[in-house]
Amino acid sequence: MARERVSQAEEWQAWAQRYDVEGGLRTFESGLTLKVFLGAIFIGLLMMPGSIYLTLVAGQSGAGAAPWVAVILFTELARRSFTTARRQELYILLGLTGMAVGSGIQYRAYPFVWYAYFINTPQAQSYEIADKVPYWVAPAKDAVAIAERSLLHMDWFWPLAIFLVMKLLAEVRYISASYFLFRLTADLERLPYPLAPIQAQGATALAETTGQGETWRWRVFSIGSMAGLFWGFFYIGIPALTGVMMSTPIQILKIPFIDFTPSIESFAPSGMFALWTDFGLMLQGFVLPFPLIISEFAAAMFTQFILNPRFLYPLEILHQWRPGLDMRGVKLFNDLDFWLSFNMGKSFSFAAVGLAASIPIMLSLRKTKQQDAGARGSLQTPPGRGDFPIWLMGGLWGLSMVVYVWIVHRMVPNFPVSFLLGFAFLYTPLHSYINARTFGVLGRPLFVLPYIHQATFILSRYEEIDIWFVHLPDEDYGAGTQHWRVLELTGTTFTSDVLGRALMVPLLIVATIVVWHFIWQIAPIPSSQYPFAQTWWPLYATDEALWKTSLRDGNSQMLQAIRGDYVSAGFTSSVAIYGILWMAKAPSMWFYGIVGGIGQDPGMMVPRVVGALIGRFYMIKQFGLKRWFMYNPVLAAGFICGVGLVGMGTVAIALVSKAVIVKPF
Amino acid sequence: MEKLAYVLIFVGALLWVFSIFAMGGRWQVQLLAALILIVGIIIAHVWEELFREKK
Lengths: 665, 55
Description:
The structure holds 2 protein chains of 2 kinds. Chain A is an all-alpha fold. Helix content of chain A is about 65%, strand content about 0%. In chain A, helix 2 (about 35-60) packs parallel to helix 20 (about 495-520). Chain B is elongated and about 45 Å long. Chain B has helices spanning about 1-20, 25-50. The interface of A and B includes residues 364, 572, 573 and 578 of A.
C-alpha cells in the first residue's frame, strides 16, 4: 500500500499541537505586577554581587539555579501570606531575576576591569597592543582611574557612555528582531519549539502550589526535582566537595565524557566516539521528538563508523589523522580537513529549505487570511496576547541597527562601511533566521560560520588593531524566539514582558557597574583574593593577545581550512537529502535529524537516545501518549531545578572553604 | 506540478552524485545541482500549499 503523503504543514501543525500541553486554549494575563518587579529587583540585586564574586573566586556563578531559587522563595512567601502567585507572574519573575543575576557574571559582558588589567599585562606589552587600545575601550594604562581601581571616575567616561548606548540599542534590536522571527516561525509556519514547554510547565507547576489544590503538576515537578537533586549530588556534588578536601576530586562517572576514540581506531580509523556521561540529558530525550533523535543518532553513527573510516580517510580527504589520537585530536584534525567546511554548507541548507517552504506560505497568505489564529499559514494573532504590529518591530530593528552601524563607523572610521552593512543587513538576518528555525525544530542553534571576523578583516585589508575591540553588527536572535513561545504557553501578555525588561535593563546596567566598582575596590583583579581570576586571566590575556595579532601577516591556518568544494558538498548533499525524503514521502523531521547528526559524535547523543527509547517504549505505554507529553516537560523543569540547587549549594560550600585560612597552629 | 517537482529533485540529486564521482566535486557543478534541487523543492511546496487536493 502506498504511503499517504503528509505535507510539511500538517506535520508541523501536529507537532506544535502535541507540545502545546493545554491544547492552545488559554487566556492571556499580564505577569508584571509591582510585587513581581520589586521581588525581581530585590532578589536580583542581592544575588548579582554574589554571582560576580563567585565567578571571580570559583569560576562558577550559580546563575543557572538562582532564578528557580527566587521563584521558590516567592511562592513560599505567597503561601505564607495566604495569597496566590499566578504562573504569568512567576514566569516574568524567572526572566527578570535571571537577567539580574546573569547580567554581571562574565568579565567580557562588563569588560572594563578586564581591559584595565589587560593593557597592563606583559602579554599586551610584548605583542605591542597596550598602547593601541582605543580610548572608547579603556583609559590609558597609567590613568588615575586604573591606579585607584575606580570605575566611577571621569577617565571611564567614553567607555561607559559607548557601553550604555550600545547595550540599550542591543536590547531594542533583540526584542524587535526576535519577535519578528517568532511571528514567522511560530505563527506563520507553526514550528513546534519542543523545548519551550519545559520552562512554561515549571512556572505553571510552582504557581499551582500557591493555589487551593495541588494537581499532578506539583507531584511530577517534585519527582523531577528529587531526581535532579540525586543526580546533581552524584555528578556535580561529589567531585566538587571532594575537590575541596583532596588534590584530585573523586569522579564516579568521568566528567564530561569517557573517550573510546583510541579503542575504535583499529576498525574505524579517523572515527570518534566519546560517551557523554551527563545522563541528565536523558530528560531532553524524553521531550524532543523521537524521529529527530533517532535519525540524528543514526546519521552520527554512519559518519563516524562508515563515512569517515571507509570513504573520507582512504580517499585522503581526512589526511591529518594518525593512530593514537584522542577525541579532541581527531575532532580538530577532521574539522580542519573536511568537516568545518562541510558543516558550513550544511547550515546554509537550513536557510534554503526554510525559505523554500516559506515562500509558498507567503503566496497563500491572502487565501488563508481569514483563517483562525493558530492555523499554519496565518499571521492572525490570538486575542489578548499583547502583540505588536510586525512592521513596527521590523522598523525598530532596522532603525536601531542603522544607528548601531553609524556608531561603529564613527569608532573605526577607516574600516570599510560596506562590511558593516553586510554584517548588519545580510549576515545577521540570515544567521538569525536559520537559528530561529533550528530552535523551532531541534531546540538548539545550528548555524556557525567560524572565523568570519578574521575573514572579514583579511578581505577588508584593514590593518589597525582597533577593529578587534569593536562589536561588529553580527548577531543571532534565533534563540530569543523560543522565549516568545514560552510566554505564549504560559499565557503571559507580550506587553508585560517587554515592559518588565524595559524597566529592568537600565537599572541593571547602572547597578552592575556600581557592583563591579566595589568588588574592584576590595582588591586588585586578579589577585589572591580572587583565585579563579588569578589562575585564568593571565591565560585569557595570552589568548586575546594572540588573536588580536593573528592576522598581522595576513595569514590564518583556520581560514585556509575552509574549502569551497567541501562547503558546496555540505550544502548540496543536505538539500538533496531533503528532496529525496520529500520524494519518499518521509517526515521532514528526519531531514533535521539526519543533517543535524552528520559529522557529529554519536557518543554525545547516547544519553538522549536512551531517554527517547525509554520514553517511546515504556513511558508512553505506561501513561499514554497525551499524558506523557504533559508530564515530561514538567519532569524536565523539576530536574533542572534540582540539579541547579545542588550546583549552587556545592559552589557555596567551595566558596566557604576557599575563604577559610588554615593556620598551622 | 507534483511530477515536475519529482523530476527536478531527481535530476538535481543525480547531477550532484555525478559531480562528486565524475567531476572531482567541482563546486560550480555542485551549486548548479543545488539550484535545480531548490527549484524542485519550491515547486513541491507550492504544490502542497496551493494546489494539492486535501482529503
